[in-house]
Structure formats: structure tokens, C-alpha cells
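We modelled each protein-ligand pair independently. The example shown here corresponds to the adenosine-5'-triphosphate entry; the chain sequence is given first, followed by the ligand as SMILES.
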Amino acid sequence: MNIVLFGPPGAGKGTQSKRLVAERGWVQLATGDMLRAARAAGTELGKRVADIMDRGDLVSDEIVIALIEERLDEAAAAGGAIFDGFPRTVAQAEALDGLLEGRRAPIEKVVRLIVDQDELVARMQKRAEEEGRADDTVEAFRVRLKNYNDQTAALIPYYQAQGKLVDVDGAGSMDAVAARIAEVLDQE
Ligand SMILES: Nc1ncnc2c1ncn2[C@@H]1O[C@H](COP(=O)(O)OP(=O)(O)OP(=O)(O)O)[C@@H](O)[C@H]1O
Ligand SMILES: [Mg+2]
């Protein structure tokens, strides 16, 4: 099954994706992780996106769509993909729909993790201490939230119109959220 884990920065998409990988054997396709890997490897792509990411802005649709496309065979072989942090714009969502249509494996569900803004900021600050990500600063996080509201939130009506959007409460423990997601995925 192909699903999108959707939500603002800090909503817990990465954490929950990794659990689904462990429990269901699906592949996590996280564009943020792919871009950070490119930076760590010192590739041309990594150099090109570094400043954009560090200030909290979105990299170009073209770049992230290409990264996703490269991994779709692997996801199909695993029996499913969890799209994490992608799509983030309507253009990305349309491109993804096009790619998956060609493969006859559409997105089945879009799980939207709902977390209030004060909690998002608190989680970011905790992660800043643990991981030291350059974009986990008050200023970059403000930009990330703004980009989410200005560009990514448009995907809510996009997926609602397709009848795929399911809201899940993203507050509480990781186990509690995982149980809520499992319930949604196991429902027909
Ligand atoms: N689909 C995308 N489109 C454009 N830029 C992206 C995309 N995915 C990742 N990026 C870039 O990588 C950065 C980090 O993305 P990532 O998904 O790791 O973080 P996040 O979703 O903001 O936070 P979190 O890890 O808490 O969910 C983004 O701020 C952006 O610069
Ligand atoms: Mg993430």
C-alpha cells in the first residue's frame, strides 16, 4: 500500500514512518532525509540545496520529484511506500499522482498528523538539543511553519477532494499515535 504521512514540521512523520517500516516492511521515502544524505556525502546536489534547507525554505519541485522517482521501483518491490515530507506542494502532488498512475499503484490514504503549534515548537527545541539540525532554530522553524501554511496546507483540500485524507491526532506518546495510525491503515 502506498500512503502519504502528512503534517507540519515536527508532527512526527519521520518517527511514525520508521515504525511502519519495521512493522510492515514498507519503504520510507523521506525527501528531507535524502537531501540530508546528499549533503553529508558532499554531492553537487547537496551543495546546491544546503543554504535553502538551512533557512527553512523549500527546494525546487524538480529536485525532490527526481529523488522520489529514483526510488519507486524499490518501493514497489517492498509492497508499499510511506511518503514522508513529500509532496509539499500541489505541483509535487500532481507529479506523484502521475508517476503512480503509470505504475497502477496510487496513493491509497493520506494520514494527516494533527499537532498544535506550541507542541511543534517544543518538539523542535527538544530535537535541536538531541540532533543539532541546522534548520531546527527558532528562525528557520518559523520559516518552515510559514512555508507549510502557505504551500503545503493546500494539499489538504487536494487530497480531501480525492477522498483520501484521514485526520489523526498526533498528540501524546509515540505508541499512542502509532496505534491510531494502525487503526486507520487497517480499516477498509
Ligand atoms: N518535498 C520537499 N519539497 C521541497 N523541499 C523539501 C522537501 N522535502 C524536504 N525538503 C527540504 O528539506 C528540509 C527538511 O525537510 P524534512 O522533511 O526533513 O523536515 P520537516 O518536515 O520540516 O520536519 P520534520 O523532520 O520535523 O518532519 C525542508 O525544510 C526543505 O528545505
Ligand atoms: Mg521529517
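The domain at 2-180 is CATH 3.40.50.300 (Rossmann fold).
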